């Protein structure tokens, strides 16, 4: 199963950086977990994915990956060897708890973008 999924993820990551629609307004952080995830995102992801949008790296807001796939992409350097510039973030750099908070925040960014797009139609 993993041998079937890995090549698909590999091909998917080769796509060019696409710009998604900008987030319309600030994301209201309602829990401490979201706020902590925002801090982890700002420290580790914001430089290349500003507010989840395309920058040096591709947009994160239009990638409908489940949490386990997001964790894999953040942790695995072998997945990106020779393909992209994204570094891996090991457990001593982003703890398991911080990774959970980061995934919650990234999903909230994506939902916020989707809700704003629906509300503006």
UniProtKB/TrEMBL annotation:
GO terms for molecular function: electron transfer activity; heme binding; metal ion binding. InterPro entries: Cyt_c-like_dom (IPR009056), Cyt_c-like_dom_sf (IPR036909). Keywords: Heme, Iron, Metal-binding. Gene3D superfamilies: Cytochrome c-like domain. It comes from the Bacteria. It holds the Pfam family Cytochrome_CBB3. Residues 32-110 form the Cytochrome c domain. The keyword Metal-binding applies. This is Cytochrome c.
